[in-house]
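Task: complex structure prediction.
Instruction: return structure tokens for all chains below.
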Amino acid sequence: MKVGAMKTILLIEDDISLLKLYTKILTDAKYSVIQAINGKNGLQLLQQQIPDLVVLDVVLPGGMNGFDVLEEIRREERLKKLPVIILTNLDSEKKVAGEIGANLYLVKTETSSKQFLEHIQSLIGR
Amino acid sequence: MLNNVIFYQNSNIEEEISKKLLRYFLFASLFTSLFLRIIFVIFRIDVGEQDILSLSIIGFLCIFILRAFVIKSHAVIVNLTLFVILSLFMYGMAFYVLSGITLYWIVFFPFYALFLSTKRIASFLWIAIFLVSLLFLYSMWFFNILPSPYPILILLFSVMSNVFSVVFAYMIYILSHTAHTRLQNVLKEQQLLHAAIESSTNHITITDENGKILFANTAAYTLTGYTFKEMYNQTPRLWGGLMSADFYTNLWKTIKYDKKPIVTELTNIKKSGELYTVISHISPIKQKDTVVGFIGTEEDITKQKVLEEKLFEQNSKIQEEKIKIESLLLGIAEGIVFHAKDGKINFVNESVCTMFRLSPEEMIGRNFSAIAPAETELGKKIEESNRFINIVLKTKKVVSDNLVYIRKDGTKFFAAIICSPVVIDGEIVGAVQVIRDISKEKEVERMKDEFVSIASHELRTPLTAIDGLTSMILDGNYGKIHKDLVKPLNDILQSSTRLISLVNDMLSLSRIQSLRMKYALEDFSVKSAVTHTVSLLMPIAKEKSLYIKIAASQNLSIYTDKEKFEQILTNIIGNALKFTDKGGITLSWKKHHDLLEVSIKDTGIGIGIADKEKLFGKFQQITSSEGRPAGTGLGLYISQQMARKLGGDIWLEQSSIGKGSEFICSFPLSKSGTAKKIKSTMNAELREQEEQKTGTMNIHR
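Output:
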């Protein structure tokens, strides 16, 4: 498969270990991964390139949390339809996430690597 | 006796009057006789050989002498006797003289009797005797038995003189009658006074100027125990003398020389030796500024004294209690507010002042709502009618809740209130509010929640990495692994999984305790939900070679949170699998009133009596045969709390050691009353949480 045909996923996650883990899972599954470690960083990357999917953590450093980032994304016309998965360890904000416009809300501890991958595949395909 | 010394007797007064009257009458008769004599001389009437004047004087002397003998007799009897004797005497003489004086006496005495007698019959009797006598006399003249030189003339003059004397006597009578009436009134007063003194329950004694007893009333005999005989001519020291010598000296000085009355409390001694306490009033009896005697009254206050002492004792006890209660009220950290029946504040303790930053003066007499506006914990203003104090005064029931008070300066504080009615004899007289400032507790609670939320999150992030990475390594995503590493890696995975579930349970617990657990209610089929849960647990059962049977086919619909339902079921079945080594688990369900009851029956080790009690407690773990099982000890507690919140419950139906246990969890059936009730409760809570959302968001973001 050519590199150009690979689906691109923006991964915004501040925990380096988890960033590495999710990157590994996704690259192993033949996705192209762009990494960001905070909300601002993520939004900057979105200005340069529109990925096929954003996987977004909620608790982020730098004054902008995942919901703020999601609100920014939904505010921009060109990013309005962009699928966003909220991947967090907060298990009580599902409703809020849905209201702001997240396509999927996953709790990290309740989602195995396999399940995580399945959700992404069903959302944007392989 | 003494009575005579002090009071006039009835007969004495009558006597005085009759004595006086008689004297007037004798003068009257003398005057009339002289008048008659003068008339006879002027008109040269010869009435006989005897001199009228001398007869009159004899008559006067007779009366005077007789009166001296019969001085104590009743007036009427005196007069009757006098009349009879004199009549006979005069009449005897009339045989010789037949003078006008005879007629005069005959006419005169009946009238005299008439005026003095108080009895009408006596008067009529004398008038009758008079008329008969007159008739007898004239008949004697008429039949010439008696010589009568000028009978008609004598008769005429006699009648005239009698008319004069009667008129004169009558005038005197009127005069003396006035005096009589006055005297009688005095007498009546005296009698009343005497009776009053006698009837008085107070001891009364009257002494002469030297203090010798002249009179004492019945109460005095009763009180002291002495008879009058024993008291007479004694001083009241007879029953006194217990006080100091100075006391009596001063007393005597005051009443005798200063001539002033004295009121004092005395302790005296009865004849029997018994002591008694009295209030004594002693006054000098003065006549023109000379002390002629003393009157003393004594009121027995022994009983009063005892009562007084008791009362004093009780009073000091009450005072002591009052001080205790007051210092208690002032000292305690809880705010205490007393309300009158109309809701106005009539007492606040120090703590209330501190809480509201107001002085007692700013609160007492005012309505509580005016000085302490309140709102719910969610910031909704509490209306006047919903204020505790008003509810309590209306319903007479105890009310308690938490709320937020707004101080005068606009600052707020959380408070826990208990408001109780004050009821005396079934009548509500007010209410008391106990206010506890729970701001600090609330803050600690909030911080704890926040800490748990953050800690859970922060703990879960690295755990996710460990868990995810380990499973990836095991899956071979990082290349082929040495077979010796498979077991330790699995152990890491298991430990991290357990740690994750522990953190998750802690988070759930924190949410349940702070009422922040969210529930999404929906109608769904029991069968499919149970089947789904069982399918997820099957691998574990298979690992231990256990079966999981579903022994019910009825497809019922329940109204609850599906996720929580599955979580609860997973927890119970998971526990059952943990404690079962042989056999398996059988699931069944049935309707029971508004609820669906799911039974989870295992063939495990069973639960001992000691463990049964701990079963639904926090951090309670039951040790299995294989030692400490993998678990947090929070599962059943959390499950039960959630089930109850959802309108159902979880309980241990039965269990026997070595045979297995049966747990039952219940949930509201769709469209049942319980379901509707839970729906409205949850909706209300959800609305409240919506209002609070901003706050919550700030914490998490």
